[in-house]
Amino acid sequence: MNRHPLPAEYSDKAQQAVLIVDDQRDFAVGLSRLILSQFPQLNCRFCSSAEEALQELERTDFDVLITDLRMPKISGQDLLTAALSMQPSLTVIMLTAYGTVETAVAALKEGAYDFLTKPIDQDHLFRIVGKALERSRLLQENARLREKAAECACSDLLVGESPAMRRLHKTIAAVAASDYTVLILGESGTGKELVARSIQALSARANAPFVIVNCPSIPDTLLESELFGHVKGAFTGADRTRKGLFVAADRGTILLDEIGDIPAGVQAKLLRVLQDGEVRPVGANTAARVNLRILASTNRNLEAKITDQSFREDLYFRLNVLPIHVPPLRERTEDIPLIASHFLMNICRELASGQKEFSPEVLSYLTCRQWPGNVRELLNFVRRLAVFCTGDRIEMAHVRLVESGPSIEQDGCNPFSPYKETKQAVLAEFTRSYVRRILEHTHGNISEAARISGIERFTLQKIIKRMNIDTESFRKG
Q1: C-alpha dihedral, 121 to 125 to 128 to 132, nearest 10°
Q2: Could you give the CA distance from residue 248 to residue 25 in angstroms, rounded to a whole number?
Q3: 201 in the same domain as 168
């Protein structure tokens, strides 16, 4: 009888691992010995229950899972679903003593690679295991390539070389390969939307629509209609049928940003989309099927919201298939010099001002400073430093100017007037100076000034009007 050695490509790679699960312990032991007789290079383990297998999967990465279909408490089909959510690249082979085609087909639809019937035919077993190991090798190679691509794709978005960011890049590359729902967790300003964009860019849906819904920005009364659409006459003002954003994202990806803030009624309808892939417009009697991937993000503690009954527990578990935690800046302070320098390079390119650099003292200050607004706050701070630095080197004097604004004395303010009045005067002078310099650079182009400063165009127009700044004086003649 010929052995089935692993291909030569494995010789320099980590040992592959196979996990066998069967409630008949003797069968699991025998199957393990049989597989090792043909693939002695493998790390082969066995468990006698799905519960034990889940613990093993939490501790160890496996290439192949061979599991019995009918087991007490947790079935092989449920184990299949749980295992793939834990290790999306796992290759799963189902075992059944009954040989029913229906159960085997159901398992294949749920993500199983193949199935075997008991009693086991040895040659068939060896062929299936050999193909499964080869599939696992190819998946790992693809994951490695995706990880390298993720580092390139994220280089302009999620900058950092800390262990936390390396883990994040690897996680993005892994989840992008699947089509499961992703829940992106993180504080405000950490870059959750950038994570979502990276996942979409590396996924098989990269060239399909990518729709972003900022849930808190849409009034509760309109959110359901925006997401699901409505038919003509569904409510006052619905003078025509309108497709919703779920339909707009069909075959692509939708990001539900800050999902923790959606109202209870929309939560219930969203659950149906996740369960059945069906969207029912407001006022419609029938539902339409959609094929899309759902990404959700939040800076809220959803488990706490479940406790106070403002968020559905069943929806949480439907969303939390592949969770990703985006680390705040305080957990990766070693990345701050790299992030700040990256921002400064891009900002100087936007300003067409020539490249600037930070002094060592400024980089040290930025690293030690607290950033409750995370990367977004750091970006805006670097923008202000770049605008107020007229030379090619940002020094601590520029930091003090940005931190405190112009001095009280030079503004002609009475330092002994009431604190509130003095603070308002200094802030007003700082704002006026900042806006004038931005407008001077953009030659009075308000849209460009809003983009560079990070201020909404409408807000910037209000500031300009309130401070009586003449934009025409900045325009080229």
Answers
A1: 160
A2: 51
A3: yes
- Domain boundary pick from 116, 139, 162: 139
Rounded to whole angstroms, how far apart are CA atoms 181 and 192?
15
Of the candidates 336, 449, 456, 452, which has an alpha carbon nearest to the alpha carbon of residue 469? 449
Check whether residue 98 and residue 202 sit in a common domain: no
Report pLDDT digits (tens) over 387-429. Answer: 888 888 899 888 988 887 544 444 444 544 565 665 566 677 7
Asked if residue 166 and residue 86 are part of one domain, the reply reads no
Task: Kindly state the average pLDDT of the residues 291-302.
Answer: 95
Provide the 8-state DSSP code for 282. Answer: B
Q: With a cut of 70, say whether residue 138 has pLDDT above it.
A: yes
Judge whether 307 lies within some domain: yes
One-letter amino acid of 134: E
Rounded (5°) CA angle 443-429-376: 70
Cβ partners under 8 Å of residue 366, min gap 6: 336, 337, 340, 358, 378, 381
Residue 149 belongs to some domain of the structure = no
pTM for the whole structure:
0.59
- CB neighbours of residue 126 within 10 Å: 19
80 occurs within a structural domain = yes
C-alpha–C-alpha distance, residues 429 and 337, integer Å: 30
Question: What is the Cβ-side half-sphere exposure of residue 177, based on CA atoms within 13 angstroms?
Answer: 23
Please write the tens of the pLDDT for every residue from 80-91. 989 988 888 899
Q: Are residues 464 and 337 in the same domain?
A: yes
DSSP state of 431: H
Q: Is 201 domain-assigned? A: yes
Are 406 and 426 in contact, with CB atoms under 8 Å apart?
Answer: yes
Q: Considering its fold, how many domains does the chain have in total? A: 3
Residue 160 sits in a domain whose CATH number is 3.40.50.300
Closest CA to 267 of 226, 225, 310: 310
Write the CB contacts of 252 (distance below 8 Å, at least 6 apart in sequence). 200, 205, 208, 209, 210, 211, 292, 293
